[in-house]
Amino acid sequence: MPQTIKLQTPLTDEDISKLSIGDKVLISGTIYTGRDAAHKRLVELIEAGKELPFDIKGQVIYYVGPAPAPPGKPIGSAGPTTSYRMDPYAPALMDVGLKCMIGKGPRNQAVIDSMKKNKAVYLAAIGGAAVVVAKSIKEAQVIAYDDLGTEAIRKLKVEDFPCIVANDIYGNDIYKEGVKEYKIET
Amino acid sequence: MREIDVKEIIPIVRKLCIDANYYIGQDVLDKIREFYEKEESPTAKEVLTILLENYELAANEKMPSCQDTGVAVVFVELGQDVHLVGGDFYESINEGVRRGYKDGYLRKSIVNDPIIDRVNTKDNTPALIYTDIVPGSQIKLTVAPKGGGSENMSEVKMMKAADGIEGVVDFVVDRVSRSGGNPCPPIVVGVGLGGNFEQSALLAKKALLRPLNESHPEEKWAKIEKEILEKVNKLGIGPQGFGGRTTALGVSIMYKPCHIASMPVAVNIQCHAARHKSAVI
Description:
B: 2 domains
């Protein structure tokens, strides 16, 4: 049965091993943002043997390019972007300690295999529920690649950021299992 | 002949950009509620509830319902008896977009070239502007901000007449199936048939402007829309791709005559944020 689990970052192997697809997760603590352009730069740093702009061990990367913060708010609307565009980069980041990715939409087999190998998970935020997500973000600060605008890496402080477990460390995939359950053969 | 100063257009386009992003159409809300009642998956029902909550929050807080506030697609119906004065018409539309995206705290999502530099233009211009000359002395402007996630799941296929209606239906359903959870289902499926390679894609986009509570005015086409919708909702993809009955809220077809050798089919996928606002000058 799907359960609701509260998690505090950074995440441990024990936190991650409790999660199964379909579980609701409420994340609190620090998470980092990154999209295609930032991922490309991070992986280039790893390949060059250089240090990343933040300590990635046990960390969470949220695939988002937020809207500008209106006056009085820490961030603008901030729903997830489509994750498959980060598939070419995700395994390299998990190999150096990334524990959790948040986005929307299915991942490829290489990413799923890397999650199993590295004990990492992929959580889905609700695509298009950008104001609901923004409400769980209490602080936002650009920490790298300011030139990328909305695609810069931001450090976010979140409280009860709502997600659903899409891929667990056991190789399960909600995008395959869920569809199988409701498909009507014609 | 009616003279219209192009500068009049700027504040109108500005407002349309903001309103389209803050206030989703009633037709979308009604359709989500209608599908919620029929939905069988508890997870899917929860997702639909969150989407409705999000649209309400966006309107109340005056924030864009989605952070992807899109490329500003602007459809112009320009009355042929209008004489535009006072400057460059398209530049005025772009200035309206510039102001709307700045003043509305909307995301700037346009890069200057697709592959080499990819530097953000920082004001969400240029807009994509499509103009039709029509009888009369009015201008109708429609702003339809289009997100990238669903646009990326769209496709044009040059089919054969021998493929028949069945072939077209299969292609559209297959395109939705291959899109899975990527384009933020529940989606709206725009289909453009006929014309040429390029016109079919524009027809598919224009089809997305039709309110979700309306079907094609011609019965034979309305029937095909219904057939595609039923098939798509049997795929099991469901809201966000987590599984369920609500994969699409609607299917909208537009068609045009075409060459005897051709049968172009375009599928333009639209996420649940089927946003567009219009004004008449």
